[in-house]
Amino acid sequence: MSALPISAELVTEQNGIEAAALANDYSHLGEQLDRRGIDIDAITRKVAAFHVAIPSWGVGTGGTRFARFAGPGEPRGIFEKLDDCAVIQQLTRATPTVSLHNPWDKADPKELKAKGDALGLGFDAMNSNTFSDAKDQKHSYKFGSLSHTDAAVRQQAIEHNIETIEIGKVLGSKALTVWIGDGSNFPGQSNFTRAFERYLDSMKAVYAALPDDWRIFSEHKLYEPAFYSTVVQDWGTNYLIAQELGPKAFALVDLGHHAPNVNIEMIVARLIQFEKLAGFHFNDSKYGDDDLDSGSINPFQLFLVFNELVDAEHRKAPSFNPAYMIDQSHNVTDPIESLMASAIEILRAYTQALLVDRKALESYQDSNDALMANQTLKRAFTTDVGPILAKARLVKGGAIDPIGTYRASGYRQRVTAERPSSGGSSSGIV
Ligand SMILES: [Mn+2]
């Protein structure tokens, strides 16, 4: 673990500044929760065990279709991206795995594994890419990939997904996430039924190549890059895909991939009930697939999603094993800071959901006491759980104040000197 990017002495020194105040705050919150019959240490242990994966592309500065404004010291390749991911894990202790993208992160898988091991990082779900053309590929995905009208293009996309599984096997990954850009821009351009049949046939070929202990996650999105119709447009279609493919197939929920005001927590409940929830790509949005930082716009929605997840955990829902990943585009902030803040917001929502008095909630629901049922959720949501989050980080060797410690470390200034600007970085939004 000597390869950790921030000096352990600095973390200890910074924690020393905050330690006494945290001890007081934690003790005070412990008394409050005790009056509600909640053991704060039991909650802290659960929070300390919660993990969310970082996408490799998240540490590069994102952009929009209008422009991308590079940030200082951007990682120039996957090995530097892993260094940045290690900073996030070192200070938050909530992000021990990285989700890689093929082909953006292409490198010798054995070298990737060795670099991950040196940094104490594991590898989460692999992401394939048939929504853009890679250099030197024979057929273009301009008019689709797994659902393309031409069998040769579909075969190329299938083989790419199988190659992504093969890379993941070396890294110790156990899942493949498939998001396609396939769809149409004009009414009449595509036959909905035939396109979906072709997609299912292609996915069956990918599914057949999955190792026994792997899962395949399909990700729906209602629009973009296709603006009239999308082949995998919503959770209903996604559920049908998971049903058609078999027991290793699950439906992944990216929070930004729904129409505004859709009740996402209810979708989550349905997928859990029918044992097909793959997991999440966390982000936040105001208008569309904005890919803003988790919890920055609508923390109550994030809490309501976690309320369903904790409810499932509480009642031991069968086949409940969600994979958590952040999927954001950091256009105006330091990506490391955004990812740390987002991991903390995700953990905050989880912690608040753990505080819901489920017995009382059930009783209010059964007696149709709408007001008190809502009050039960709001009581958990409005509890300041910051001391629990800080304590969970501290006991695992992280920072009480990750962003403050990161800024004090001068990491960004150091890598800015080490990484001359290349003018571009492979970053994307999926
Ligand atoms: Mn996504």
UniProtKB/TrEMBL annotation:
The keyword Metal-binding is assigned to this record: yes
Which keywords appear in this protein's UniProt record, sorted alphabetically?
Answer: Isomerase, Manganese, Metal-binding
Q: What is its EC number?
A: 5.3.1.-, 5.3.1.14
Q: Where in the numbering of this chain does the Xylose isomerase-like TIM barrel domain appear? A: 97-291
Single annotated GO MF: L-rhamnose isomerase activity
InterPro entries found in the cross-reference section:
L-rhamnose_isomerase (IPR050337), L_rhamnose_iso (IPR013451), Xyl_isomerase-like_sf (IPR036237), Xyl_isomerase-like_TIM-brl (IPR013022)
Q: Which NCBIfam families does UniProt cross-reference here?
A: L_rham_iso_rhiz (TIGR02629)
Q: What's the protein called, per UniProt? A: L-rhamnose isomerase/sugar isomerase
